[in-house]
């Protein structure tokens, strides 16, 4: 790659990070707030999962907070990299969960997702998750490059 094209791609990285940041915020903020607003429904959905009661309680009381914290980290420049890492971790877990549903790992597997995501079938949900997983990984990678280049 010649130096001119490389320089142009470096200049575009902050714009790509900004765009991905907006998309991730559109994912994490509404879904976490929806879980808090409709907490009883979210709690009931989690209790229907084939997991232990103690793990269910941990998920119920930590997941909305972790999702909101992820959004906060993503919009805070000093902690943005950690936000992209958290987003990648969450999307990896959720994607593996959806993949296990498609592979019939359990007899029944409810979806505790809300809003638009709740209306997707398992295949659509998997693709949705894969897209957001790729976005999270891409933002993580680009943030490392931008941070390294700026020395901050």
Automatic annotation (TrEMBL):
Keywords linked to the UniProt accession: Membrane, Transmembrane, Transmembrane helix
Pfam families cross-referenced by the UniProt entry: MauE
Transmembrane portions of the chain: 15-37, 58-75, 81-106, 126-146
Residues annotated as domain Methylamine utilisation protein MauE: 15-141
Organism (species): Sphingobacterium alimentarium
One BP annotation, GO: methylamine metabolic process
The keyword Membrane appears for this protein: yes
Lineage of source species: Bacteria, Pseudomonadati, Bacteroidota, Sphingobacteriia, Sphingobacteriales
Any single Gene Ontology cellular-component annotation: membrane
Protein name stated in the entry: Methylamine utilization protein MauE
Topological relation to the membrane, as annotated: Multi-pass membrane protein
Subcellular location field: Membrane
């Amino acid at each position: 790659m010649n130096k001119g094209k490389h320089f142009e791609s470096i200049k575009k990285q902050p714009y790509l990070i900004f765009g991905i940041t907006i998309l991730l915020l559109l994912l994490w903020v509404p879904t976490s707030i929806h879980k808090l607003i409709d907490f009883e429904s979210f709690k009931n959905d989690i209790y229907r999962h084939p997991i232990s009661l103690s793990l269910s309680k941990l998920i119920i009381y930590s997941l909305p907070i972790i999702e909101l914290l992820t959004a906060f980290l993503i919009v805070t420049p000093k902690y943005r990299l950690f936000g992209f890492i958290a987003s990648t971790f969450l999307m990896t877990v959720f994607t593996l969960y959806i993949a296990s549903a498609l592979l019939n790992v359990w007899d029944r597997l409810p979806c505790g997702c809300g809003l638009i995501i709740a209306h997707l079938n398992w295949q659509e949900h998997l693709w949705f998750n894969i897209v957001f997983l790729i976005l999270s990984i891409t933002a993580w990678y680009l943030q490392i490059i931008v941070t390294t280049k700026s020395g901050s």
